[in-house]
Amino acid sequence: METRPKYINQNSFYGSDYFLSRVGYEDKWNRVKRLGDAYYENELIERSITEKLGTRFLNGKEISAKDLMDNAAEEAKKNGLTIGKSLTKEQIAKLDKDIVWYEYQNVDGIQVLVPKIYLSKNTLKNLNNDSRSRITGIENTYVRTGNLENTGLIGGYGNTYVEAKEVN
């Protein structure tokens, strides 16, 4: 997948080129098939974060693809991660930071590197201790109720509609 350069400045986004340079990939880059360009990969990463967390913010800070890739470089050295391979349960348990890791997937019969988000044990602990409610969706999120008591997050990656007689 490639974005039309007329509309998107690719230099504003971090994708697999940046990731591979950070983790020290040494083979010929043109041999590695990627799912898309930096813009497309950023979109996938942001959607994945929103799906997992219900928001793009963690501890009051926006999570960026660049931060996750920088974290991945550190974690790869500490935990012996291999580009293209999914993390084992043991490797996931050892993560001190949230990361994006590129793994091989078969897409239309072609092996391509695809970004996948892995959350650290600290993030997972914070999520499990978070008692706020969340309503999230990918394309369209529609909430219809009589009374809405919002003590958490209502959001969607696309359009979000809330219809209520009373909102508190």
TrEMBL record:
Protein name: Hemolysin
Origin species: Fusobacterium animalis 11_3_2
Taxonomic placement: Bacteria, Fusobacteriati, Fusobacteriota, Fusobacteriia, Fusobacteriales
